[in-house]
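PROTOCOL LOG
Step 1. Enter all chains and additional molecules of the complex.
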Amino acid sequence: MCIDGNEAAARVAYALSEVIAIYPITPASPMGEHADDWAAAKKPNLWGLTPDVVEMQSEAGAAGALHGALQKGAFGTTFTSSQGLLLMIPNMFKIAGELTPTVIHVAARTIATHALSIFGDHSDVMHARTTGWAILAASSVQEAHDFAVISHVATLQSRVPFLHFFDGFRTSHEINKIDVVSDDDLRAFVSDDDLLEFRARGLTPDRPVLRGTAQNPDAFFQAREACNPYYDRVPGIVAETMKSFGERTGRHYDLVEYRGAPDAERVVVLMGSGVGAAEEAVDHLVAEGEPVGLLKVRLYRPFPADRIVAALPPSVRSVVVLDRTKEPGALGEPLYLDIVAALSESMDAVHPPFERIPRVIGGRYGLSSKEFTPAMVAATLNELKSERPKRHFTVGIHDDVSHLSLPVEATVLERPAGEVQAMFFGLGADGTVGANKSSVKIIGENTDLWAQGYFVYDSKKSGSVTVSHLRFGPEPIRSSYLIEEADFVACHQFGLLERMKVLDRAGQGSLFLLNSSYGPNEVWTHLPYSVRQQIVAKDIDLWVIDAYKVARESELGGRINTVMQTCFFHLSGVLPSPEAIGHIKDSVEETYGKRGRTIVERNFAAVDRSIAELARVDTPSTAGAEVSLRSLIPEDAPDFVTRVTARLMAGEGDLLPVSAFPVDGTFPLGTAKYEKRSIAKEIPIWDPDICIDCGKCAIVCPHATIRMKIYEPGFLDDAPSSFKTKDFRSKDVLNHKLTIQVAPDDCTGCGVCVDVCPAKSKTETRRKAINMEPVAPNMEAERVGWDFFLDIPEIDRDLVAHSSIKGSQVLEPLFEFSGACAGCGETPYIKLVTQLFGDRVVVANATGCSSIYGANLPTTPWTVNREGRGPAWSNSLFEDNAEFGLGMRLGMEAQRDQARLLLGQLASEVGESLSSSILDAPQESEAQIRDQRERVAQLKALLRDSDNSTARHLLRLADELVRKGVWIIGGDGWAYDIGFGGLDHVLSTGRNVNVLVLDTEVYSNTGGQASKSTPRGAVAKFASSGKGSSKKDLGAIARAYGNVYVAQISMGANDVQTTKALLEADAWPGPSLVIAYSTCIAHGIDMSKSMSHQKDAVKSGYWPLYRFQPSEERSQPFKLDSRKPSISVKEFVSTEARFAILNRTDPERAERLAKLAQADVDERWHYYEQLAAMERSVPHEPDPAIEPEVESDAGYRYDEGGSR
Amino acid sequence: MTALSTTYLGMDLRSPIVASAGPTTSNPDEAAELDRAGVGAIVLPSLFEEEILHEEVQLNSALEAGSEHFAEALDYFPAVDRFESTSDRYLLLVETTKAKVEVPVIGSLNASSPGGWVRYAKLIEQAGADALELNLYRLAANPALGAAAIEDLDCRLVEEIDSSLSIPLAVKISPFYSSLANFVLRLVAAGANGLVLFNRFYQPDIDIDSREVVPRINLSEPWELRLPVRWIAILRPLLDNAVSLAATTGVHSGSDVAKALLSGADVAMMTSALLRNGPSYIERVERELSDWMNDKGYESVSELRGSVSYAATEDPSAFERANYLKTLHSWTAP
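Step 2. Run joint prediction.
Step 3. Record the structure below.
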């Protein structure tokens, strides 16, 4: 069977559990998703019952629920990673302290430090090593499966809970051919006695006990030591379990395993997926006669010191220990320290195992899935040869700061005979990865060959590039690193040839399959020079196919997966072509068959046509004329962008040295504009003759690639001839011109702007003021237009009404060109916030989609205006964003207060008049804020040359005298679930923070798991059978405080109300909560109609628009801004796959939930209508930044805020 | 045999009032109500192949959207073992309705591909339908396709489906054929056991505010019955007695049913009136029909059927062009 590490572990966990508490976190989410899918399909566990799979509000919740289930005597498990594991730690201590058997399966992932990383290392599991859990490390997909079994069996026997881990992505997402343990085998491994004993310890009023006491100094210590014998037994139990496992399955493991020369002098020690690379390196070196070996650590806790010592050959002179984690400030990383201690203790024996204690050095490798290759292993063993090896080092990077890194020589190992290595470059949208996953399964499951697939994605959600690494061979494949020398390279997108070094890893004489609209006779001259050079130098055999033509003619749109897959099999010869085609068709049937015949038949047609369209290119013997590529970034780009960002963009990040990076994770803004991805096939083209200046196209643009500027006609003097303009129609701004311009290289081609454009041609109604047109014929003119457009100065912000759409849309956005999905419903809100207040906000951003498209390297869409001001942005965690933002607000106020105090003290020096005008200045409007900025500039000029300490402090803080705001931004996963407690608390403080909830009603970033915002009847992951409960009314909870400004908005339904709500939220001097309906790819909709869906959501009453505006006066604070529902909920939801799926999987339940969903809406509407008539008043104090109150000599009375 | 019984597509029906394809017959519970109210047979709504196609393509693209783009979210929906497609649901409707009613259940099909017609016709038969109504619902908007070619295509289709089915086959057509009588005879020759006259197209409308084409659904009015009545009257004498004729569009009352039968129909089909008045309305229509029959002394449907057809009426030309002239001539300026 060919599956990935997550599925391999989850299968076992599911079979051996009754209660599974889950919470999504990359890269462990698929384990929970599998469990939920299986439970929804009523798949039984080993004892014939479907496990209860329950999604919790956080990992802390999952651990708590697991703890409870275990205490009741039910078999339970959970899956997690990284921060999620950290949130489980408090309960893990409890579970272990109570000697409760269970297993947590961990896809080990980096813990966020200077940056978040979703990739793999051991920093999370190492953090759990003090919890008292046994820790078992799997190093491959097969082991992730086998060790899951061993963990579940050993925990029951030992009573010590097990943390079973494997490396995130490298193992969790690698597909490999494995043998699956049968249910019969599982039954044989799990002892009935252990099960019954565990059950007997469960809490029951029939045999009541007390567990979880508080103990005092007289008792705790002794009681804590009472568990020791249980820990002492663990290694023996695991070893025994491994032994019986080996006897039954033929797969033999041990707590630690030695491999290499029996008389090795140098040994490398490590655990996890790096073992694969280390095995290859050591085998290679041993074959070359080097006295080296490898010690694989399987059981890490309880640490089997004796067995480690016993496993090492007595000949060992030195040991290098590799840790996949970093513990700053420690003497060394954990495994290193453990090995040092183990060897040191061993020498106290009567008969010491070694003549002389081996020298031990330790190093870090592979943090955040940094590549770890056999060459790097060889480098570490090589270091041991040195007289004075580096005691502590790093490998795999170039450290030019602390000079800790080891040099690595390029060693390409001799490949196992018969192994085929293939690489595929594609786009997320073209189905390349899916096809490759299918190819791995076809080969792995239908032949004797072993197969491995690993997939690398970039950090973008639109137009993302994927690289697939596939290996096939007669021997099991343990290579836990990317392909270094491919026999076969396929490039599924011609455009990637310019962006990526597609042939860098192509081997001599390899095959190159290219999807090209140019035929075999014309393609050569269209290839980039570097590609031609490599083809010639490496004697590469080039084949082309116009896969898009085949796909188009087979009505498959942009999905070229089966076409390219067919060509791969045909050319690679891994399987005879007719046989391969049969398997491809079976695979198509399996993938698409359940969705109906149409897609199956279209794919069959594509498969049948593919080979005939494939053509070999007769390549010349020389590369031909050299043509230089368009430079990646402009010459005048900032230094950091040139030095660092551009290299990351070019895929050369691995080559950057330590010194290239900021020491504290701080990066410059405004870099997304340098990442010209040119991914759109069609872009919107403006027709000024039809345009009515409404600004709707600009406000909805998710990537800020449709811009609107108004300017005086004089700016057109040097305009290029193709630059389009029209008279701006306005009562307030006279004699101005208007241009709406697309950024052609940044547009994703989502089409949302065209969907919302209300202006139609009089003679041909399908033509609007903005129309999608093919990119090629328009690119040049639009590039010229965009460059010119950028040079036109921004309009004076006072000239336009910010509350109107056309007014807000001529304001400069300070959030542009993000990597969000095409048609993203979230980003237009963020962009609008930056247009309205961008130069005076600090943003606290919860982890999630918005933190990823907002700040995933290489670039960021957050940017600055011409004065260099812009949103200062930071992300703390997923769960604490509201608190993080509140802290920012507190810091801001403290600095402001300090500045006011200092200014009061320096009043006589800077002049009473300036001082009081600053301290007394109202800052309600933007004009007032700008005036204050000018006064502060004067103040700073006066202070600049002063040596006075007070003056220097004031100079540093003076800008804080200008009003600023905090925006706390995050998704529903944060606001409704994991961060709700914090959000609720922050709202309760009465402090002046603005919260923007980008409500997609689902955990978008991790792939669509249900949140408490998910509506009734929607199908989501963790709610496979349709969410049964109704959506939480977050706004109602916030409104209950009375002094919180609350608005529910939907840009597609009412952009004016959206803008008004954001302005009011900013103006309200207490907490504000704005809940924004955000259409998402996880809704299963046509994203080009994103805004139309938003409109229908409001029309049906599903998403009522309102603003709750607290006031000191008795008034009606609740304003219902949307009209009475005019369409049914059914009519709205029928166009969204998230609801439609249930209709097709469980129509009866769908019908039942649909009725309830309508009832939910009717009920809420009725309630809201009554609320609209309700009168309320709320006492509150003003924010001195907005309405200052002057008193005392400090010139300032401290504002205590709402309810402190 | 009651006075109201009739024969349609070779099936004995207890009443000539048949519930035509429409929302009422899409709900098995309402179908059961129709049955209790005394309906003669039930025609299920049409299975549209285009709809199946559309649904499959849409669902597939929704499930594929965003998949394998991004390391954190390799897809956005849970794995689902099997989706119930439009055709699955339709076949289930056939089965459920069949189980809930006594009277014959007639499936209805509108396909768009040659393979689709036969595939789904067979599936409907297998699901237990007593007969199949082919809904030749199309607009001849392709200028490259002449009238003869269209008629040839339709006839071939009927032939093909007839040869693959063992249940009776009715063909529902629109009035927009240039030589209807000729065409109907060809359809019968191709294997149609009966004709349903006429299909009623939903006409699109234009919203003058948004300047968009919008679908509008208007229920039929009794005056619309005149067109089918005319053609049934003309066709009845041309066809073998075994070939059934059904009048549909504009049947709203017992007297409308009477008109249909008088012109030569074996059954009269209702949709709009049922939507307006609910399934039990059948009882009232039936009562009206019986009362009228009693009044006129008719003892059976077969007795009255076709008694005012082209062949039987005193003035057959009234059904032809003369009708138009006469209507005009009878009009006098006020």
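Step 4. Note key features.
Residues 113 and 665 of chain A are 8 Å apart (CA to CA).
Confidence is low (pLDDT under 50) at residues 1190-1204 of chain A.
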